[in-house]
Amino acid sequence: MDRRQIIATGAASLGVACAGPSLAGEEESGGATVNLSGVGLPVITEGRVRNYVFVALRLHLGSGASAEVVRTKEAWFRDALVKAAHRTPFVVPGDWTRLDANALSASLMRSAAGIAGRGAIARVEVVSQAPRRRTGLPA
């Protein structure tokens, strides 16, 4: 893959990620969602930052929760996620290019009760993970 293709692919995925928050709304199943995109989380092993993975998340709202109210608290969700990732990294052993989606979702669900209120967020879905660095990783 040459440099032009990498840049074009990165620009295309960035454009989609930037459009994410404005596309939040009703889903096919009828539940409201709010998209959080472009949160950069570290991959920390042996006390060193080895890589960053940019994650796009979708918050599925519980009954009675308003998408507008949750969308105004987006900065708090991002902050809680970054703090949790530095405190206990969501590292997949032996892989510096992705994060543990289940641990990430569980951590944000614990924080969501304090940020948006109990029951406001039904579940957290990891939509995509894009590592900053794809080379120089352990075999």
From TrEMBL:
Protein name in the entry: Tat pathway signal protein
